[in-house]
Design goal:
Order of helices and strands: EHEHEEHHEEEH
Oligomer: single chain
Number of helices: 5
CATH superfamily: P-loop containing nucleotide triphosphate hydrolases
Largest sheet: 7 strands, mixed
CATH architecture: 3-Layer(aba) Sandwich
Distance between the termini: 22 Å
Shape: globular
Number of domains: 1
CATH topology: Rossmann fold
Structural class: alpha/beta
CATH class: Alpha Beta
Strand order of the largest sheet: 1-7-6-2-5-4-3
């Protein structure tokens, strides 16, 4: 995503704690059916962001990278579920399809790490976040909403996080 589009939002995080706080603000806005795609190299801060996102959503469970498990499910006190899917070890689009993304999306918000590995099976509308490693503590996050629903989420996120639209 080298060029910012009209609805994109770019943010520079100065610490893992700030990255988590951003995730918390976004997590508080998520509802079942929402799809958040996190693209970034190893060490870019994807899991750190999801830790905050899950906390803001209300998860009772600790967040860990699902690299070897593929999908972690986090629970909230009301029984709602948040799905955290890592496609790093998914070998093919067919394998990704077998995991039944539609069922996960229908049951709760879905966060996908390494979404570029299975872009062809993702919903057309989604929130895409590119995380880039700048140095040991700093990360650049580029938020790209695809669809009106995600434009609204990003507008609310900016409002609650920074007081701007």
């Amino acid at each position: 995503m080298p060029v910012l589009l009209a609805n994109d939002f770019d943010f520079f995080s100065r610490s893992p704690e700030q990255t988590r706080r951003l995730g918390m603000r976004l997590g508080a806005l998520l509802v079942p059916g929402d799809v958040v795609c996190l693209q970034g190299e190893l060490g870019a801060g994807k899991t750190t962001f999801v830790q905050g996102l899950a906390a803001g959503w209300g998860s009772l469970d600790a967040v860990s990278s699902p690299t070897f498990i593929l999908v972690n499910v986090y629970r909230r006190a009301d029984g709602a579920q948040l799905f955290h899917f890592d496609t790093y070890r998914v070998e093919s689009v067919m394998e990704a399809e077998e995991l039944d993304l539609d069922a996960m999306i229908g049951a709760g918000p879905l966060v996908i790490e390494w979404p570029e590995r299975m872009a062809s099976v993702l919903p057309a509308e989604r929130l895409w976040i590119l995380l880039e490693h700048i140095d040991e503590d700093r990360r650049q996050l580029t938020f790209r909403p695809v669809g009106k629903h995600y434009e609204n989420i990003l507008r609310k996120f900016r409002q609650t996080s920074f007081g701007t639209i």
